[in-house]
Amino acid sequence: MFTPPVDVPGPRIPHLSMVRYMREPTAFLRDCAMTYGDPFLVHVFGRWVVNMADPEGARAVFTLPPEATQAFQPRTLAPLLGEHALILIHGEPHRRDRKLLTPPFHGTRMRAYAELIRRLTRKHSEAWPLGRPFDIQEFTQALTLEIIIEAIFGVIETERARRFHHAVSAFIAQFNPMVLSLASLRKALPWLVESSRPWRLAQSRLSSLRQLLFAEISQRRQEPSFAPREDILSLLVSARYDDGSPMSDQHICDEMLTLLLAGHETTALSLSWAFFELGRHPHVTERLRSALASMASPEDAEELSRLPYLDAVCNEILRMHPVVAWVPRTLVAPMEFRGYHLPAGIAVAVCSSLIHERPDIYPEPHAFRPERFIERKYSPFEFLPFGGGNRRCIGAAFALYEIKLILADILRCYDVGVTRPWAIPAVERRNLTLGPKGGVEVIAHRRP
Ligand code: HEM
Known about the structure:
Number of helices: 20
Bound molecules: protoporphyrin IX containing FE
Largest sheet: 5 strands, mixed
Structural class: alpha+beta
Strand order of the largest sheet: 1-2-8-5-3
Oligomer: single chain
Shape: globular
């Protein structure tokens, strides 16, 4: 069972690999690359995975034809996200759904969320215990959750919104490594998994959230078309495929759950890393404040989102702390790479964290130096916090926009210092997302 299907070098004790991966994913991948070279083979999440740690490997994976790969664990996650979830499907249905789901996260549609992001940033930061230490991660989690709920569901500060908050938070909390491990075991031990308490709890929370979603979709379908709304749920309800057909309620529901999971924690953790790095690099924060002060129209979200130094700071944070540091795919057609024949069925992964710390691309890779993004342009195979190819994150532009608006508004109003300025290891939070171990403790003061 544990004989590797390819002779790519790598550790051969599968259970140990998973334990080490769970404990410190980036350190484990780094050790493997140093010991075994590139590519290297590991056995994690019940699968053999060939890992690429340089831009050539990233290019080889991300430029494969869309029909040559599929999602990493489609069957495992389907009971939690639904059969139609974008993150799980492939081929023509994946292409069709991306076409429908992408527009709300770009251009003028995305810009409509600026006011919402700023209003909620003010609301949440006004509750900070000024002058006393607190974990900024609690702020970033609560804020990005409320933003995504308003942006994608469009339910604002009503009893319905409260019920959504409750159901979404309960569902997300249940989407934890324990439930994901149960999902991987379910094929082998269905009875054991389905009768376990965590699994039953996850299913019951999922079903409460789905019921709310179905009710909301049904209400949107009855709303008169002359009441246009900007939220993503409404846009999906009115969206049509090329042949004119609408998405089914079930399908919309699956996509909403995907957006919630893919869009909330990733942004929250990236923001936590941002406060950590800015808090321990006051000279960068000051330079950023000067850049903000030099804006022609300080309230203009468009001008802000194009500010070169703010862009460089955000890129440097995503480079040093990619919250999805490992981007896997399953091969459905064989692939040749550096003399290895990789058969269909095996998984391949691009290790963005390892590419982001290569000194030949990023000199002094462990130094926080936003200027590098002003001095040089990086290719999509050198800088890849949002993955790449036909599955590249559809929320990338929205996430960057959100992070920039939040950082700018907070830096204008508050000084935020970290209480522990030394390096924090990245640990797995939920499925494949990495966050600062133990959170980021800060002390904030209002600026004069
Ligand atoms: C800083 C924040 C974020 C980061 C770092 C991030 C990162 C990623 C990465 C690495 C992938 C995998 C790409 C691949 O397989 O090549 C991904 C996929 C995805 N992300 Fe994001 N993401 C972020 C925010 C968001 C937001 C705000 C949304 C939407 C609300 C979103 C929705 C998605 C979806 C739907 C996919 C699946 C795309 C597909 O399979 O076709 N993400 N993201």
